[in-house]
Amino acid sequence: MNELRGVSVITALDTPVLLGLLIPDPGFVDASQRTLEAALSRGALAMWEVVYPELAS
């Protein structure tokens, strides 16, 4: 895991960012991908349990 100033960074993924990748809209795909890549470069990614049903609905 990457560290920033000696503290591990964990970024929580939210539904809109993931929907930006899953729904084929060019205006959101690039922004969502950049956001996820930037977060991953700083550390781990996590997803709250509530995001699963939100994505399924």
Draw up the topology in text.
Layout: E1 3-4, E2 7-13, H1 15-22, H2 26-42, E3 43-47, H3 51-56
Parallel strand pairs: 2-3
Antiparallel strand pairs: 1-2
Helix pairs in contact: 1-2
Short key terms for the protein model shown above:
single chain; alpha+beta
Overall structural domain count:
1
Low-confidence stretches: none
**Mean pLDDT rating:** 85
Radius of gyration, in angstroms, nearest whole number: 13 Å
- The total of beta strands comes to 3
Straight-line distance between termini? 32 Å
Shape verdict? flat
| Lateral strand order in the biggest sheet | 1-2-3
The total of helices stands at: 3
Helix content: 40-55%
Largest sheet report: 3 strands, mixed
- What is the ordering of alpha helices and beta strands? EEHHEH
Strand pairing plus helix content: what structural class? Answer: alpha+beta
Strand composition percent: 15-25%
In short:
The protein has 57 residues and is an alpha+beta fold.
Describe this structure in words.
This protein has 57 residues and is an alpha+beta fold. It has helices spanning 15-22, 26-42, 51-56; strands at 3-4, 7-13, 43-47. The protein has one domain (3-56). A hairpin with a 2-residue loop joins strand 1 (3-4) and strand 2. The radius of gyration is 13 Å and the shape is flat.
